[in-house]
Amino acid sequence: MRSLAYSSGRLELLDLVNAPGSAASAADAGLKAKLQESGHVLAGFTSSVADLQVQPGSPSGQVVVSVTSATSPYEEKDASGAVVAAGAPAAARNLRLVLVSVDGRWRITDVLPGS
C-alpha cells in the first residue's frame, strides 16, 4: 500500500499503512507534504518485505514483526511526467515493525532497526 501511495500520488493511502499520530506516520509526513505540495510522484517506487517473523514477548496490544526490507530505484516526476530527480535503491536491511490494531486492522506505529 505504501508503494502504491508514493508511486501513484494517492498519498491518502498512507493512512491505511500507519497508525494515526504514530512515529511511523510522522516519519512519512515530511515526504508526503513535499509530494502533495509539488504534485510529484515517485514513479517506479516499490518496497519489498521478506522474512517476516513475529517476535515473541510483544507488548500488550502490539505485535513486533522482524522483516527484511528493500526499495527499488525510482524517478521523481512532476505533474507533466517530466523526471525531476532520481532515487537510488535501498539495499535490503533488517527492521522491526511495531504494529497496533486500529479499527480491527494492523497499522505500523513505529519502525525500528533490526536486532
Task: Kindly summarize this structure in a few lines.
The protein is of the alpha+beta class and 115 residues long. It has helices at residues 2-8, 23-38, and strands spanning 41-43, 47-54, 62-71, 74-77, 83-87, 90-102, 105-113. Strand 2 and strand 3 form a beta hairpin.
Write out the strand line-up for the largest beta sheet, numbering strands in chain order. 2-3-6-7
Low-confidence stretches: none
Distance between the termini: 25 Å
Strand content: over 45%
CATH class division: Alpha Beta
The major β-sheet equals: 4 strands, antiparallel
**CATH topology, what is it called?**
Nuclear Transport Factor 2, Chain: A
If classified by CATH, what would the architecture be?
Roll
Q: Counting H and I runs of at least 4 residues, what is the number of helices?
A: 2
- How many beta-strand runs? 7
Roughly what is the average pLDDT, rounded to an integer?
Answer: 94
- The secondary structure category is alpha+beta
| Shape label | globular
